[in-house]
UniProtKB/TrEMBL annotation:
InterPro entries: Claudin, Claudin_CS, PMP22/EMP/MP20/Claudin. Claudins function as major constituents of the tight junction complexes that regulate the permeability of epithelia. Belongs to the claudin family. The keyword Transmembrane applies. The chain crosses the membrane at residues 79-102, 114-141, 161-182. This is Claudin. It comes from Acrocephalus arundinaceus (Great reed-warbler). Keywords: Cell junction, Cell membrane, Membrane, Tight junction, Transmembrane, Transmembrane helix. It is found in: Cell junction, Tight junction; Cell membrane.
Length: 183
């Protein structure tokens, strides 16, 4: 009974982590403009993501522009895009393997001692996916914090942590928890 609850909880965590990984990959709010001056009147908010930049003017008008050329992107951004795309694909595969493993272990005649290879594969894949999500999200967060406190960076170029980073950290934690439950 406890095994079934653990498997279903892992499936729930893995599913939510998979959706969070997809959301963090698609969201443009990885880096958000910071307002560190004493100026209260703010006309523009700038969002920088993996795929596009967006500018919100007065909270009314939102303009987004995809990056023009893949070759013009900085190498870390290219690597983060690749890692997040691999993580999304691996999250879907590990979630499907977890579904098959839970179904197999539920219908097994050998009882709770029967270990499904799909459960173990899903656990390892969830752990790998959580790590793949954690790397670009944490690296971007560290770069934002470093640049924010660097006096050499001009004030208009300072950025804050965006919502996509928090979604990425949360989904990474859920994926790692799901992987630990299945392993």
């Amino acid at each position: 009974m406890a095994c079934c609850v653990l498997q279903l909880t892992g499936l729930l965590f893995g599913g939510v982590g998979m959706v969070g990984t997809l959301a963090a990959t698609a969201m443009p709010q990885w880096r958000v403009s910071a307002y560190v001056d004493g100026n209260i009147v703010v006309f523009e908010t700038i969002w920088e993501g993996l795929w596009m930049d967006c500018i919100s003017q007065l909270g009314i008008r939102l303009q987004c522009k995809f990056y023009d050329s893949v070759l013009a992107l900085p190498p870390p951004l290219e690597a983060f895009r690749a890692l997040m795309c691999v993580a999304v694909g691996l999250a879907v595969l590990s979630f499907l393997a977890a579904i098959v493993g839970v179904k197999y272990s539920q219908h097994s005649k050998q009882g709770p001692q029967a270990i499904s290879i799909f459960i173990l594969a899903a656990g390892a894949a969830f752990l790998l996916t959580g790590t793949l999500v954690l790397i670009p999200v944490s690296w971007t967060g560290a770069g934002i914090v470093r640049d924010f406190y660097d006096p050499e960076v001009p004030t208009p170029l300072k950025r804050e942590l965006g919502a996509a980073l928090y979604v990425g950290w949360g989904s990474s934690a859920l994926l790692l928890a799901a992987g630990a439950m299945y392993c």
